Automatic annotation (TrEMBL):
This is MFS transporter. The keyword Transmembrane applies. Keywords: Membrane, Transmembrane, Transmembrane helix. It comes from Pseudazoarcus pumilus. The chain crosses the membrane at residues 55-75, 100-120, 126-145, 165-187, 193-214, 251-270, 276-298, 310-332, 338-357, 377-400, 406-425.
Length: 431
């Protein structure tokens, strides 16, 4: 593990251990590799069972109502974020917090396996409601994992190696996702429900393997002050938005950057309208998204260790410009031959931008504070963003019924504003 750590973390010139204890420093090579394995497996699972691609295809095949499809992404994203102020209070009460991630991963595996059963046994409204219910539980478990992960990361991995780790996680997951998408493009359009159920079972197995790897992380007990649970304790954390100016600006910038993720289904919808062959497009866009993460994440990760705010800002700007260009392209109604290369290329660029947004804002958030304050930052920001994401998703769905292009353009404009705010955040990296 020492050798692999030195290669991946570029730590061959002496151990760098900023912002962690000496005993944690000694375990950092092994913890780096275990965290990498666990999160790469979970990321591959998330992309195979994506609420933006795979789950809509399954619900469509099962004949679920259209309104079920429109709720997939809002439930998946906001469901994992909204409760995090309350989850964060419970996590703070634990001196060792990796068990929260392991338990959450196990629950997510069970939910995906149950979705596979639904795909083979139910149809119509019943199937739609069952999958939405399971996705809600899945998202709540994911919220617990998110809070625990960032806190364990801050306790076990040196400050100047966290962005690098996140970059390798996304890169490995991107390679596996690209391969999965490539296989799907070779399958016939009528792959059948058995194929979709099989994808969900594979995703469930990956989450179980991820939980096993994460359980082997060596985590030393940390602070538990302020770990009381309950509504009052959780709501009190909202005062951070009022009292902490840097944190407040970060949350505003992150909210404006949501378009890098929300725009993806609209890109696919515009491409489908012009190119058709939805089953083929599923494989193409999954593969392109994986390729984008594969080639860009290590670069974003290394840059994040030097300046995570600049990574966030640059990625926001890229996503914003791309969305405005895509909207203009669609309005121009150019020939289909040009659209065949334009949309996959634009989706690749959006994948690169989204990877940068995620890596930049995650690294910035972890580096902003230590101990329980970091846990509070994660919980409050994710809960607020979850609420805004749900509201934005509903508004976006309504706006898209009038003009998909206008919706994409507005998301792009928000991203450009977020890039400006992100550029002016205070530097917190020390690489």
């Amino acid at each position: 593990m020492e050798s692999l750590y030195e290669r991946l973390a570029e730590d061959d010139e002496g151990r760098v251990c900023k912002a962690i204890s000496d005993e944690a420093c000694r375990e950092s090579p092994g913890n780096f590799v275990r965290t990498l394995v666990a999160n790469a497996l979970s990321n591959v699972s998330d992309r195979i069972a994506s609420a933006k691609t795979t789950l809509p295809w399954i619900l469509g095949a099962l004949g679920a109502p259209a309104w079920c499809l429109s709720l997939l992404v809002p439930i998946r994203e906001s469901g994992s974020m909204l409760p995090q102020m309350f989850i964060g209070a419970a996590v703070r009460a634990r001196a060792v917090r990796k068990g929260v991630w392991v338990a959450g991963g196990t629950v997510q595996a069970a939910c995906l396996a149950a979705m596979a059963v639904v795909a083979l046994s139910l149809e119509g409204l019943a199937a739609g409601l069952a999958i939405l219910a399971l996705l809600t539980l899945f998202s709540l478990a994911r919220g617990a994992c998110s809070v625990a992960y960032k806190d364990v990361l801050g306790k076990t991995i040196p400050k100047t190696r966290r962005g690098r780790l996140s970059g390798w996680i996304s890169s490995f997951a991107g390679f596996a996702t690209m391969a999965t998408g490539g296989v799907l493009t070779l399958l016939p359009d009528s792959g059948g429900l058995g194929l979709y159920a099989g994808l969900l079972l594979v995703a469930a197995g990956l989450w179980l393997a991820a939980a096993g790897a994460y359980s082997r992380i060596v985590e030393y007990p940390g602070a538990t002050e302020g770990g009381a649970n309950g509504f009052t304790e959780a709501m009190a954390r909202l005062s951070l938005l009022r009292d902490d100016a840097l944190f407040r600006r970060f949350v505003v910038a992150r909210a404006l950057a949501m378009g890098s993720g929300l725009a993806a289904p609209f890109y696919v919808a515009l491409a489908r309208d012009e190119l058709g062959s939805a089953a083929l497009l599923l494989g193409i866009f999954i593969a392109v998204e994986g390729l984008a993460a594969l080639v860009s994440s290590p670069i974003w990760g290394r840059w994040s260790d030097r300046s995570s705010r600049l990574v966030f800002s640059a990625a926001c700007a890229l996503a914003g410009v791309l969305s405005i260009v895509v909207a203009a392209w669609s309005w121009a109604d150019l020939p289909m031959a040009a659209a065949q290369w334009f949309y996959p290329l634009a989706f690749f660029g959006l994948g690169v931008a989204h990877a940068g947004v995620r890596l930049g804002r995650k690294t910035y958030l972890v580096d902003m504070a230590e101990g329980n304050l970091r846990t509070d930052y994660v919980a409050v920001s994710n809960s607020v963003i979850g609420l805004l994401l749900l509201a934005t998703g509903v508004v976006g769905a309504i706006a898209a019924t009038f003009s998909v292009e206008a919706t994409v353009a507005l998301l792009g404009l928000a991203g450009l504003i977020g890039a400006v705010i992100g550029r002016n955040l205070r530097e917190v990296s020390e690489g």
